Amino acid sequence: MTGPDPTGNKAEAFEAEDDLPRNPNLTQTLGHVIAARHAQAASQPTRRGLLQGLLGVSVIQGLLGSSALAQTAAIRPAAARQPSRFAFDELPWGNDAHHHVPAGYRADILLRWGDPITAGAPDFDVTNQSAKAQLQQFGYNNDYIGFTPLNAEASRGLLCVNHEYTNEEMMFPGLGRQDRAGFSGMTRDLVEIEMAAHGGTVVEISRRHDGSGGWQVQRDSPLNRRITPLDTAMTLDGPAVGHPRLQTPEDPSGRSVIGTLNNCAGGMTPWGTWLMAEENFHGYFCSDRRDATGAPDLSDQPEARQMARYGIPGGWYAWGQYFDRFNIDKSPNEANRFGWVVEVDPRDPLSTPVKHTALGRFSHEGAETCLSAEGHLVIYMGDDARFEYLYKYVSHDTLSDPISQDPAAHRHLLQDGTLYVARFDADASLTWLPLTHGTGPLTAQNGFASQADVLIDARLAADALGATPMDRPEDAQPRGDGVAYVMLTNNSRRNADQVDAANPRAKSRFGHIIEITEQAGDHAATRGTWEILVQCGDPKIAEVGALWHPTISDSGWFAAPDNCTFDAEGRLWVATDQGGRWSKTGKSDGLYALETEGDRRGEARLFFRCPVGAELCGPCFTPGGDSLFLAVQHPGTDGTKALKGFERASTFDDPATRWPDFDPQMPPRPSVVVITKLGGGKIASSPDAATTQ
Questions:
Q1: Measured distance CA(590)–CA(585) in Å, rounded
Q2: From CA 527, how far away is CA 518, in angstroms rounded?
Q3: Which residues touch 518 (CB under 8 Å, ≥6 apart)?
Q4: Which of 214, 453, 527, 631 has the highest CB neighbour number within 10 Å of its CB?
Q5: Based on the number of CB atoms within 10 Å of its own CB, is 306 exposed (0-12), middle (13-18) or buried (19 or more)?
Q6: How many CB atoms lie within 10 A of CB 367?
């Protein structure tokens, strides 16, 4: 795999891997019509008039020079504004080894990598790890968090947490980066520990009775469970189930698979099941064959074209040395069994998770759900890589009313529906293109013999339909009223001639957020409109081309939007992941409250700040909005070598010179943090705040 340098860490290398565009369909850019789009925006101010210059940034810069961007805020007249919907004192930005919250709040670590989640689990010992222990302990690099209540007061609930990937140099003392050393230090035991640390965790939590408003883990709960690629049996369903391309030596039926990989963001269904999104699955597969350049030789692979489009094999791990199913020379179809969305029933620890092929195969960042006007299940999904696409799934049937808590009653909604991919046009219109066999180019003559082929090769199908290649679409969060927000984290590989209206900056290192408005407010609509909410980065640097509300503070602007969520009042919160490049902003990652309505639209404020080197994932509120769960992933890794006083390549570097406040018996670990308000009440709300959603 590619990475920044041999002494860096694997988290940075994963970010570098995302930097490699694999989409050959980059000729349908919209740069030649940008001027017309901006002229239209300037002459016909949008309904969001305060930031009417938002889409005009490129034409302003072209006509007047980059210095004009710095003047746009200054020329706007000051006016009395509505009070902010977020009632908290903004946190100042900074960098250190700790997490921070505003005055009036407390942040408690609820779970860390290795914490026991069952009554019989051993305590964590970083020097004495085993797969058997890890299968009873909280996994590594927690990402998505979902919460489902177990009582009417929501004082008891199940936390559903994804574990995205592992870093050998952060987990195992003295081992170092193994992908840079030919995996010379790896053994079967270490590989099995890695596999056991992947997947997900279901754990029961409850309110403390000490009046603090805090939460605690119920280790004796029979619902607590680990889901891993080591030992968790899963079934496949939908149009591709049983297809020859899903059949392997271990599963000739093509109907079952062991485990799930690289679970990034996700979602919760209206009936309380958990959707785990499989993202960068390609990295787990290897090949023993090499061509003259040393790259994997796919010449004997019947699916060489499809594998190349998905980046298979990535060679990130040594798993294929010990498990043939991860070696494409021995089991070429195994990779086709990953890259799906997995449904888990957290209330039934004996239930078998299901991979739903109707939702398509790609690097799923998330799977956020809502209902259409008529009750169809709608799921928004980003394909998290540069120049990839935004997708939406709409079920054919509608949800029963009242909603049953039995997942079997609703599973057909995830088996039978239409998968769409988005085309963003320069006139601000949005078209959802159906990935349906027989539609347009999706025919046998073009390599799609059936609907199964369309879904297994969703990226190739989207290429053929002419979808819009985006700047790394991550979370896509529907609000339920026909509006959805799409996080586009960055794309440093987009050249000036590849710029289009929906991706307006070349070499964008800072990302932007798009607001989608579906036609007639219906999430199932096949047409709509779009608008850029903010362009991220430092607004004081004209060349960056950032666009925020004119009153944005030095602490409020951010870069690389990644995960997002709505709270109980329908307000948008955005978590950031700058990867190893956070030194370009000088800010650690964090959670930001972002105004989307009224005359403060486009104003953001910093609420939570990560320890240096961590990314923030999985923001999740309790139903009443009085607790907020956050996933702090890989603290002390990304980009730390760029900041004096924090330089380190491993969890186990010399604490005297490399990491402030380092305890060799308690190295920095990925963790779930829960935030509550001192004295109680909704997060960031005034006492009389009304619930709008």
A1: 13
A2: 6
A3: 430, 482, 483, 484, 524, 525, 527, 528
A4: 631
A5: buried
A6: 31
Instruction: Say whether 360 sits in a helix, a strand or coil.
Output: coil
Predicted pLDDT at 22 = 75
* Other CB atoms within 10 A of residue 483 CB: 18
Q: What is the pLDDT of residues 431-446, one digit of tens each?
A: 999 999 999 999 999 9
Of 632, 688, 504, 555, residue with least CA distance to 89: 555
The torsion angles phi and psi of 16, rounded to 5 degrees, stand at -65, -35
CB 230 within 8 A of CB 196: yes
Cα–Cα distances (Å) from 433 to 61, 420, 430, in that order, read: 33, 5, 10
Residue with tokens 């998770």: 353
Quote the Cα angle for 29-33-36, to 5°.
Answer: 155
Residue 659 reports pLDDT greater than 80 = no
DSSP characters over 433-463: EE--TTSTT-SGGGT--SHHHHHHTHHHHHH
| Count of C-beta atoms within a 10 Å radius of residue 397 | 14
Task: Please spell the DSSP secondary structure of 81-115, one letter per residue.
Answer: -PPPS--SPPPPP---SS-B--TTEEEEEEEETT-
Structure tokens at 507: 């070499």
**Contacts for 612 with CB less than 8 Å, ≥ 6 apart:** 95, 96, 97, 588, 635, 636, 640, 643, 646
**DSSP of 518-547, one letter per residue?**
EGGG-TT-SEEEEEEEEE-S-TTSGGG--B
- Strands 561-566 vs 527-535: parallel, antiparallel or unpaired: unpaired
- Out of 28-42, 103-117, 136-150, 305-319, pick the least confident: 28-42
Which residue in the block uniquely carries the two structure tokens 């990935």? 435
User: For strand 390-398 and strand 341-344, is the pairing parallel, antiparallel, or unpaired?
Assistant: unpaired
Q: Phi first, then psi: give them for residue 143, nearest 5 degrees.
A: -125, -105
